[in-house]
Amino acid sequence: MKILFYVDPIVEGALPDWKAGWLWSVRSMMLAIIESQGGLSDDLQFVCICSDIVEPIAVSLLPNCTIHAINAAKLVPALASSSLELAMAWSAKACDIERSQKMANVIEHACGDFVPDACITFSPAPFLRVAFPESALLHRENGMFSIPPFASTIYLDSAGMQTNSTVYARSEEILSYQPTDMEHKFLATLRDHYAQRLFGDANPLKHWAQRRLRDYPRAVLLALQAEGFYSYAAYASFPSQFDLLVHLLDSVPTNVAVICTEHPRFPAVPESAIRSLQSKYPNLLWDPVLRNVDGASQYLMEYVDTVITVSSSIGFQALLWHKQLIVAGSSQLDFVASSHDVRDAAHKGKIENMTADRVLSWLLTRYFLPTTLLDDGSFLMARLAHEIAISKLPAGQRTEPPVPELSVLTSAYLIQDVKNEESYLGEPGASAPTQIAVFTAEEEEEFSDSTCFTYRASILQQPQLLRLVFPVQGRRISRLRIDPSTLAEVFETREISVIGDDSEMLWTWRTGQAFPTEVSGLIVTQLKTSTLLVCTDNDPHFSIDWNASRSPRRTISVEIDISRPDSVRRLAESEAATVALTQELSHKESELRRQERLLEREIGLAQAHLLDFARERANVAAHEQQLQADLAALRSKLHTAQLESAVLRNSLSWRVTAPLRQIRRLLS
């Protein structure tokens, strides 16, 4: 089987290497397929197309894959005036035929003689059908659930994405679907399972929401998205989400609370703008804590009756809790939206329970797939084989892919303890979030950004256990570099542990033991019962390692007992200021020494010039004296000659020969 993975080379959001994250999914699928086939063979061929910027990361992550890089500069402005315009063009219902053919030519040129049996793309790519009309095409993206405590889901759609998706095309069929009794039971179990993990005491936003909402009889949730990406811009009524927010605030009564959440990595509205709006609209509820809690929208479902978004998967989650959905545009959510006008948020509403259950039963059993199913290479290979087979049939003869057994889906969806791969922890009143980075490496590998996981956490004054979890993804990780902050910070810690599969302790440290020796930008001070970590620059870090033979296969978690005592915060700031001043002083001293060396050189040159001048002056004086002497000698000779001439003119011979001299002058 020949498989082409397409990682879009165009740059969205001015983030050239952002799409490198998709390479981890490529790696996972490749490894699952290879393992299911008993290893790599000539019958398995993998090719990945990506940007030239992402290419080095692809080469390091995909050793069993041929990488073909496309320069994004060759696509913009050749095919569109901007990357966003081009991405929106690929997502359109009716794609420009000429533009698709040009892009298909680029793809064919990159692949050479390689013709895939199946193409897997992570973004809309209609030109792949033009380039490889006989190949199966699957669109892979995150599904209805992607953030813990939900089990992660994806979809594999042969039709397309968003308004080109199977869901959009078959919306009437989905709305009329009749769930079985077992599917009704499955949904009830699913709701109960996740209600216990999202709401009540399990809700990290419980106290914030209760305190802020006590004066409002009802609330609506506006889930903003990443601006500057096709997934919002191509489907939104308001190109600017600031305008969307203002329009909503102007449309609802002041006794209706508007809770505004954002994409955790790409806030759409600056905090200063939100604060300004809050002065005019007190019913706008927003707090930095909402940026700290990953998946804040899903924790707020129990407090709102209406959800407003454009194309976010939170729109499908609204069905799970029977909330009214308003789509501020047109997207794959259209068929479950009660309105497309945000002014309707002024009125309370809900979706009918039966309608919600019909849609959810179809989506969760036939469309969205738990990611763990794809970890089974046999399942993925079977799905690919099915898509390849039906791609060669006329449209009317194509069959549906096999539906996984409900018992398998139930086990996959109802995972007991789903942990964050990227942690966003926060409490009302906590500090601004701290960015923590964990760099991973194999035994002989250097640390790099391509194998780094980032986390944001609000570190409290009281001790807390911070748990940072990340997938191994087929690597033999035995070294970590932990960057506790990017600012001048001070932390108090008591214990740090690294845990692998089945709770195996890979590495541990406690106060009283020697701290790791590979430290930079940190001052480590042992106290009686804890250890202070004072970050003195913007890149503090320490490194740890363990025996490579104990490398885990699934996940690694780093557990840090940590707090940020307010009483020593000034110490960190003072220490950082001292270090900064010391560095500045050192720089000034170095500059002073450099200037002194330059001055000494100039003085030396000046002194040398003075000596040269003195020598030249002496030479000129000597020469002048010689000239004066020569002149005096000449004058003496001239005077002698004049005397001799006078004597000659007065002589007899001069007078006798005078006529002869006159005749000579006349003849001449």
Question: What's this, in brief?
Answer:
This protein is an alpha/beta fold. It is 40% helix and 20% strand. The protein folds into three domains: 201 residues; 198 residues, Rossmann fold (3-Layer(aba) Sandwich); 141 residues, Jelly Rolls (Sandwich), CATH 2.60.120.
Architecture overview:
- Strand 1 (2-6), helix 1 (22-36) and strand 2 form a beta-alpha-beta unit.
- This protein is elongated.
- The protein has 3 domains: 2-160 and 372-413; 173-370, Rossmann fold, CATH 3.40.50; 424-564, Sandwich (Jelly Rolls).
- The strands form 4 sheets. The protein has a 7-stranded mixed β-sheet, with helices on both faces. It has a 6-stranded mixed β-sheet with strand order 13-15-14-17-23-20, with no helix packed on it. Strands 16, 18, 19, 21, 22 and 24 form a 6-stranded antiparallel β-sheet that branches.
- Helix 1 crosses helix 18 (377-391).
- The chain is of the alpha/beta class and 668 residues long.
- The protein has 22 helices and 24 strands.
- The longest helix has 81 residues, at 569-649.
- Helices cover 40% and strands 20% of the residues.
Features of the shown structure:
668 residues; alpha/beta; Rossmann fold; Jelly Rolls; six-stranded mixed beta sheet; 22 helices; elongated
Strand content range = 15-25%
Q: Report the average pLDDT across residues.
A: 87
* Helix/strand class: alpha/beta
Largest sheet, described in full?
7 strands, mixed
Spatial order of strands in the largest sheet: 3-2-1-4-5-6-12
Number of helices: 22
Percent of residues in helical segments? Answer: 25-40%
Output the radius of gyration.
40 Å
The total strand number stands at 24
Catalogue the unreliable spans. Answer: 418-431
